[in-house]
Amino acid sequence: MSDEIKQNQLWTGDYYNQGTGPNDIFDTLKEECGVFGVFGHPEAASLSYYGLHALQHRGEESAGMCVTDGNEFHYHRGMGLVKEVFDKDLLASLTGSLSIGHVRYSTSGDSRLTNAQPLVFKYRDGDLAVATNGNIVNAPKIRRELEEGGSIFQTTSDTEVVAHLIARSKKPLVEAAKDAFRQIVGGFAFLLLTNDKLIVASDPNGLRPLSMGRLGDAYLFASETCAFETVGAEIIRDIQPGELLVLDADGLHEDRFAEPQRKALCAMEYIYFARPDSDMNGSNLHSARKRMGQRMALESFIDADVVTGVPDSSISAAIGYAEQTGISYELGLIKNKYTGRTFIQPSQELREQGVKMKLSAVRRVVEGKRVVMIDDSIVRGTTSRRIVNLLREAGATEVHVRITSPPFKNPCFYGIDTPDRKELIASSKTVEEICKEINADSLSFLSPEGLVEAVGGGNVADYKGGLCMACFDNDYPTQTDFGGEEQFGCGC
Length: 492
Ligand code: SF4
Prior knowledge:
Its EC number is 2.4.2.14. [4Fe-4S] cluster binds at residues 266, 412, 468, 471. This protein has 492 residues and is α+β, with helices and mostly antiparallel strands. It has two domains: 31-261, Aminohydrolase, N-terminal nucleophile (Ntn) domain (Glutamine Phosphoribosylpyrophosphate, subunit 1, domain 1); 284-456, Rossmann fold (3-Layer(aba) Sandwich). It is built from 18 helices and 26 strands. α11 packs across α12 (315-325), α11 runs antiparallel to α17 and α13 packs across α15 (382-393). The longest helix is centred in the middle third of the chain and has 15 residues, at 285-299. The radius of gyration is 22 Å and the shape is globular. Mean pLDDT is 89; it is low at 1-25.
């Protein structure tokens, strides 16, 4: 494809809007996926629709659900938002009381419908549907071994690797699933559906969030608890590392496929990904982010006139910073809510201006002011520089950047789509160099200890507060070296 055509092609999906490709305007990290499961509710499809809608921020590329009435599967998957993929008539046709659903972000160049989940298979004992959030580090190695043994794959998704492992086992389904989960390494939250069972599993480190809720007699499962609030369900608890739950005609069976390892829930869920109205590990996300801002103020106070947060994820932290310092919190940056998922890729010159499609600085708030700008992370540094420049163009006399995470230096193996290490600005530059690069007057990052204390609200008994911090400190909670066959990013 010529550069000219590339320059003018219609980009679909959030790849352009929020992707991590070198041409993307917004070099933020990409969320992973979201899962939602229902056991024992006559309106499982409708509940899933609203639950998936609440998880939409975790994946805008495709959506799907599989529902069973006990005899057969009814399922639908499509590209786009939940509201675009399903309509009233379609939902009415998805009859049954058990369901699993999924929203997905694709990795760049991989936005095919065949990878949309849940994936549905026929295996020797009947129908099987699988939905997952996360990444299996050793999936390429297992896949190669399976292919050498004659297996044929239809997708590039990790999920299919697990389905093959289950299908090849001679054991009953639950034991086969346990065996399959023991063979895979990574961060994952799995929902498996048959015509009479729902199986729920979390990796032995609990890297990806997964919670259980109740609505009357029904059990619900979701990547984030905000989905339970949406459907009026009660939060019961988080699924524990290595845990495997089986729900069938006899009710809920609590089991496990592995002993829990070091608890290591993804720190970026707290910092950036999850919705502020969700709870994880007993902490509300808005409150945790506020504490990050307060801690940031204690670690790196700077005298200024206003504090502003980069919307939406940094608003809570900015409120915390302002409360702690007594500097007034103001809406110095406004997000344009209507930047949809389809854009014409602009020229390089316009790309520099492109951040304005998503964010605007409020001139009357920042003009003539010394501004503290709170943001959650710096990936390549290009977005930070553009936002600092927005504030300067709107008349800010000083822009001091405070980042509520430690420097992001290492790629993720567990479901977050990150650029190569060499593209992560903090992997090769000092804080002073990054400060200069993003055109800020000063720059500070939250310390790892500050992050752990803020997330836990003072409960830091677990190693690293029960968090994975590998993208900051290179201390990965699992094996990551599989002889060059390991997989980064998101494998959903
Ligand atoms: S490496 Fe970073 S982004 Fe990946 S799971 Fe760990 S904390 Fe989350």
